[in-house]
Structure formats: C-alpha cells, structure tokens
Specification:
single chain, mainly beta, four-stranded antiparallel β-sheet, three-stranded antiparallel β-sheet, 0% helix
Length: 120
C-alpha cells in the first residue's frame, strides 16, 4: 500500500485450507479486472463519487496517482480517493489490474484531463 490514503478495512479469515481476504461486505461496490494492452495507458482522470482500490495482477503495471508514479509489485494495493487524479498503464507487457470501486459507480462520473485517444 502506498502513502496515498488509508486503505479500506480488509478482513482476513484463516481457514484449514488457507485464507481469504474480504474487501467488501454488503456495501455498494463495483469490481472489474482491467486489461491494458502492451505499452498503452488509460486517460488521466478523476471521479467525484467513488474511491477506487487497485491491485496489480501482473508485472509491468504503472499507476499515476495525484502526480506520483508507482510501479507496483504483483499484489500491491493502491487506494485512489474521490477527487485524486489517476491513471494506469503498462510499461511494456499486457497487464491486468483488479479495480474495486467504492460508492456510486457511473461511467459519466469520469472527468478526463488528458487522453491519447481524443476523449479529453
């Protein structure tokens, strides 16, 4: 976890076969796995109505959060608070990122500040 913000409470439950981590329980959230093509990146953006927790699933992910560049290890978590500028990308290989959005999820809540595909 980076110094960006306080991580949501994640409950770890030990079982005879191993363990699990629970990120949400009966709360409004949206879960995605985002696939970023080799060398590509999403728009620089921010949201007003949701926080996002990103978890790097592959090596080569690059996160930009509030002006800070982060090259996370696999499994590393980064919390983006509502209002923070952010984007994710790939330093070369195709990468996957688990995204858990907390709060009201609406694609129209995206404010694009910079975009390589002409959507800003």
């Amino acid at each position: 976890m980076t110094d960006q913000a306080t991580e949501p409470t994640i409950i770890t439950d030990e079982r005879p076969w191993g363990r699990f981590e629970r990120f949400t329980l009966n709360e409004q959230s949206t879960v995605k796995i985002i696939h970023v093509a080799p060398g590509q990146r999403l728009s620089l953006q921010r949201h007003r109505h949701r926080d996002e927790l990103w978890v790097a699933l592959d090596r080569g992910a690059v996160f930009e959060v509030a002006g800070q560049r982060i090259e996370p290890e696999v499994g590393e978590r980064v919390l983006i608070k509502a209002g923070d500028t952010h984007r994710m990308g790939s330093s070369g290989p195709a990468v996957r990122v688990l995204e858990i959005a907390f709060g009201e999820f609406d694609e129209d809540d995206i404010e694009r500040l910079e975009d390589a595909y002409g959507r800003a």
